[in-house]
Amino acid sequence: MPHDHHDETDASHPHALLPSEPALRVKALETILVDKGLVDPAALDAIIDYYEHEIGPHIGAGLIARAWVDPDFRKDLLRDADALIDSLGHGGRQGEHVVVVENTPETHNMVVCTLCSCYPWPLLGIPPAWYKSDAYRSRAVREPRAVLAEFGVSLPADTRIRVWDSTAEIRYLVLPMRPDGTDGMSETELAALVTRDSMIGTGLITTGLITTGLITMAGES
């Protein structure tokens, strides 16, 4: 397109006034909002600290590990995840109406949001960049097996792959299969095996090793 043909080194070009790195652009926007009195820096720092330290994949991993060792908990998690999660104090904004889907030897579940990036934040933390990419959102539905292969996930040919489309009304969390050889492990040790990707369905868990590759379309794991 015509506007694509310009000298990137021309400092007079409007684009040259913008910071090149996303972090710098975010910082510039934050500075503007603070200067205009639209944002309280202390409140913003508190929000960032909350999402960085108080929530994250360790919350979801704890649920998975407990489901592996407690059959009644697993049954409740699969039947009514909302009630169970709320009772544990892990509910909240971006985590309403969660449905847990269980992997089995016959079926592998994978989560995507084809419209935007709906995601169970209270259980998994901030979504990765690749989850929000156009490539993942379109290809996960059209060619899930190929996408999984790019993450390093190789499934038997007869394993059915079921793709769940998260929305603002329903968000999905994958309950991975418990790996063999973990019978003697504690709930805490089991939780350490569970990663964010395995709860999205783009990773597999094996004893002491998480299979989670790079998705080349987005360039970020």
Q: By CATH's scheme, which homologous superfamily applies?
A: Nitrile hydratase alpha /Thiocyanate hydrolase gamma
Biggest β-sheet description: 2 strands, parallel
Strand tally, please? 6
Strand content: 5-15%
Mean pLDDT: 82
Outline type: globular
Q: What fold name stands as the CATH topology?
A: Nitrile Hydratase, Chain A
Tally of DSSP helical segments: 11
Cα-based radius of gyration, to the nearest Å: 20 Å
Outline the low-pLDDT stretches: 1-16, 209-221
Label the structural class. Answer: alpha/beta
CATH class identity: Alpha Beta
Beginning-to-end CA distance, first to last residue: 32 Å
* Helical residues, percent: 40-55%
Keywords:
221 residues; alpha/beta; Nitrile Hydratase, Chain A; two-stranded parallel sheet; 11 helices; disordered N terminus
